[in-house]
Structure formats: structure tokens, C-alpha cells
Amino acid sequence: MAAPAANFDALLPRLDLSSADDLLISLVRELVALRDDPDRLAAQAAAMPDAGAGDLPASALVNSAMIDAAYALRTEQGFHGLEYDGSGAPYRWTGPNRAFHFEMTVNRIRPLELRLRYSRMYENPKNELVKCYVDGVEIEAQTVTVGNEFEVLATLPARESAGVTNLTWMCPRVRSPADLGESTDVRKLGLIFRWLKVGTPTETKAQRGAPKPSVAEKILRRALKFTQGKAAS
Prior knowledge:
The chain is of the alpha+beta class. Helices cover 24% and strands 29% of the residues. A hairpin with a 5-residue loop joins strand 2 (79-84) and strand 3 (90-94).
């Protein structure tokens, strides 16, 4: 575990010190990212594979996990920085490459359902679909519309051994707004990632839709509406 000073040094650049209101909003965002969600805690355990995980029986591993955009996803995994939409919900653009990755240690004695939620792709003129690979092997996946967003559904095959599961998702293409003359943003953007859920079909069906907003998220959304209202006036 990192020392408190190291944690603070990592936190400070993410805080907006422009004003008291902006500081409050950025602090609430950090609370949202650390909200007390059992699924999120399981995801943190599952997404941090231990070097000795292969020595554990599969029954010792979690059966479900969830990773959302507020989780500490790295550039090396194929993600850009954390952002928030107008309602305060977190998201991340994938990029700069087409592929983005997750490593998890989940119990695969039985098949599990994979559900990847994204808002939209930056550019997809041919209406191509997101592909899914498990431990380097492509598996069948289908994309469905959920409200104004999309979910990629797939089945994580059963496996007797414990060990690490490598999940790779492939966006059809990446483009930068600067290349298209739309802005000065030179980032290569794929799709807007919201969350990934892994679990039994019964569990994931019970969790349909976005995670329920926590108290911190509700405060953040009210704060955003308040500051937007002040800006408009």
C-alpha cells in the first residue's frame, strides 16, 4: 500500500483549486470514485492480480466484479484521463490504440457474463462492432442498444485453473478531433467507456443499467447544476 504522502501527491493534481466551489466539486468527485460499493471493492481485488494467484484454488476468487470509468485505469491499458459528463457521471475515452485491456482474477469454474457499457464511438462510419478477446482468443460478442448507450455482451468461458484472465476489447477505429479539423485535441479517441461488469447471468441481469448513484454522486450532480446555473446567470 502506498504511503499517505504518496497518495496525497497523486491526489493533488486532480483537485481544482480555482475556487472554493471548484475545490468542493473535485473533492466530491474523488469521493464518488471511492464510494462504498461492494461490486467496486470486488473489482479492485479482481483487477489487481497477485503474483501467487495461480496457487490459489478457483473457489477462493471472486465470482463477480465491476470496473467503472472512475477506477484507476492506466494509459498502458488503453485509456485516456478521467472525465465527467454534465450529470456528474464518470467516463473515459479509450485510446490512443484501438485495443483496451483489463486483467482480472475471477472464479471461472462456470461461464460468466461480460457486459461492457459505452456511450458512443468517436467515429464509426461503417457501423463496425466492438470485438472481445479472452486470453488472446476472440470470443463471440454482440452489441445491443440500452437507452442512449450501448452494451457489448459476451460469455467468459469456463476454466479450471485460477490465474489471471486477460480481457481485451477492440474498438473499430480511433481518430483525433485535430485530424478531422474539429478542435485542437490531438488525442486518438476510440469510444466512451462507462463500465465493465463480470458475473453470472442472474447477477448481471439484477444489475441492469448504470450503477445507482451514491450520496456523493447526488451531491456532485446538484453542485454541477448549481455552478452551471451561476454561470448561465
